[in-house]
Design a protein that fits this description.
about 120 residues, alpha+beta, five-stranded mixed beta sheet, 2 helices
């Protein structure tokens, strides 16, 4: 998997997306459905209708990256079916994305809290 700098915002589309869309089409989904700006440096993760492929879209300050993983066999069966408050997008941590990319489930995943620097200490 690609190594990303932490902390990283990762947004997961809970509904499948038409993979005939390229970078511009996925950016439109990010803006219109998610209410997010694809230029803000977050990673946006999409699943295709057949649950056999995942795409990651992110902007690195020079241009967009569009990465795809297509399974040799099987499906991504543990993809979340709804976001927080039934929104179409779900915020996940890098470790959760890694679990999903390996076919695992994040529903009951237990992770240590993320360290955050306290100002003035």
């Amino acid at each position: 998997m690609l190594g990303f700098c932490s902390p990283l915002r990762i947004w997961l589309a809970v509904e499948s997306v038409d993979f005939r869309k390229g970078i511009d089409g996925l950016c439109a989904i990010v803006r219109e459905r998610f209410g997010k700006n694809p230029l803000d440096g977050g990673v946006f993760v999409f699943l295709n209708k057949n649950k056999e492929s995942i795409r990651l879209l992110f902007y690195d300050s020079q241009g967009f990256w569009l990465c795809q993983k297509r399974l040799s066999s099987g499906k991504f069966r543990n993809w979340p079916s709804f976001g927080i408050d039934n929104h179409q997008v779900l915020s996940v941590m890098e470790a959760e994305l890694s679990v999903l990319l390996r076919g695992g489930a994040i529903r009951n995943l237990k992770l240590h809290p993320v360290f955050r620097q306290i100002n003035g200490v």
